[in-house]
Amino acid sequence: MGLFVVATAAVTLLVALSGGAPSTLAHLYYVPILYVAVRHGARAAVAASVVAGVVVGPLMPSSVVGAQHQELGSWLVRMALFVLVGLVAATLAKSQSRPLDVMVRDVFVARGLRAAVRHNQTRVHFQPLIDLTTGDVIGFEALCRWSDSKGRSIPPDRFIPEAERTGVITALGTRVLHQATDQAQLWADEGRTGLLVTVNVSAVQLTDPAFLEGLVKVVRSQSSASFQLCLEITETAIIADPVRALATLRAARDLGVTIAVDDFGTGQSSLEYLAEFPIDIIKIDRSFVAALGTDPKSHALVRAMVQMAHSLGALTIAEGIEEPEQLEALRALGCAIGQGFHLGRPSDADAVDWQTREMTKASVDSTGAGN
Ligand code: C2E
Ligand code: MG
Ligand code: MG
Which end of the chain is flanked by fewer CB atoms within 10 Å, N or C? Predict the structure, then answer.
């Protein structure tokens, strides 16, 4: 409301300086009214319209210089127009699924992101995947990173949905795939062969024929023993278009690429697709891992997920391990692979912490679980 007060005061001053209320400058009162309507809704819009109507009506003569008062009818009409415009603006703003200011912000995010992809300014961070039996770093999840033109880091949870909505995800996803596989090839060339490298794939990409063509090129350009590429898809991406998703994933599998279901347990799909889809890895969502120590139900659910994955011949990766207790619980439940801040944060490829191994190894040795 602070901006409303400042804007109203500024408009009042301008109208007064220009000679009085009938001046066309009186229309400037629509600016603060629209602002309040969009930001604060219908009630605030009515209040703002009445304030503006009173200020520009009874309090503001039609001629300041001549000290002429306004006709009651003319300022009542103006006040009614203010209220009407305020109410219409508030209704329109409310009918949008996203608030107007969020929409405006997203337009800037999408524009900046498109430019960043065009100029190769997005980066990839790698978060280690740890074998919970041996404590070894067995691979990485590739996670996209982007800082806007002012150098502010924008979280993927904000720019990925925008990239999906605007279609930029196609170019962005291709770039992430290349950056991740190029890095995996570099590691292989240094002797770190056989790493599991997972790349997130959106629903939009899964149903785009160009995605498969790009994947074929990437796979053909790598030597087969260098690393194991894995695509992370969500349950939501599967149910968006199950027929095309299945065709893409089967084709990817035929190329030797493995498939992981990301954030497992948070989607709204049925378990039916688990039998039908070629799934190699189930990534247990971090919400289950976070509640492991405190909620016995989460414990039971994680146990069920591990057993179900096992009977389907799939591996499990537990996401979001932040505490040593969670690590121990997951190990005891037979979860194969772990990922989380406790084991290693996402970082530039150069800053990857291969020593994570020692930390978990110590933990393995002390519990005897690795024997
Ligand atoms: P995700 O695929 O589930 O990735 C894991 C996210 O959890 C990452 O967030 C990671 O930094 C975070 N994380 C890892 N360990 C922990 C932990 O111990 N505690 C907590 N609180 N968080 C942890 P990030 O990098 O912000 O990515 C968020 C999401 O954005 C990803 O979730 C993924 O859905 C999406 N995303 C990121 N990069 C890409 C991409 O290249 N393509 C697509 N399509 N989506 C991406
Ligand atoms: Mg993921
Ligand atoms: Mg995840």
Answer: C
**Separation CA 288–CA 87 (nearest Å):** 45
CA 13 to mean position of chain CA atoms: 44
- pLDDT tens-digit map of 169-191: 999 999 999 999 999 999 999 99
For 212-278, list the strands marked E by DSSP.
227-234, 258-264
What residue type is 106 in one-letter code? D
**Residue 156 · residue 173 · CB < 8 Å:** no
DSSP string, 42-97: HHHHHHHHHHHHHHHTTTS-SBTTTTBPPPHHHHHHHHHHHHHHHHHHHHHHHHSS
Instruction: Check pocket membership of 176 for ligand 1, CB cut-off 6 A.
Output: yes
CB 180 within 8 A of CB 139: no
Confidence of residue 364 (pLDDT cuts 50, 70, 90): low
pLDDT, residue 335, reads: 97
pLDDT tens digits, 40-86: 889 999 999 999 999 888 888 888 888 888 888 888 898 999 999 99
Q: How many CB atoms lie within 10 A of CB 56?
A: 28
Cβ–ligand 1 distance for 345 under 6 Å, the answer: no
CA–CA dist 161, 313 (Å, integer): 32
Q: What band does 356 get if pLDDT is binned at 50, 70 and 90?
A: low
- The Cα 19–Cα 25 span in angstroms is 10
Where exactly are the structural domains of the chain? 2-95, 109-367
Q: Which residue has the tokens 């300022």?
A: 75
- The CATH T-level fold of domain 109-367 is TIM Barrel (3.20.20)
Query: What is the CA 158 to chain-centroid distance, rounded?
Result: 4
Q: How far is the CA of 206 from the centre of ligand 1 (A)?
A: 18
Q: Are 188 and 227 a contacting pair, CB within 8 Å?
A: yes
What number does the ligand 1 atom closest to the CA of 205 have?
44
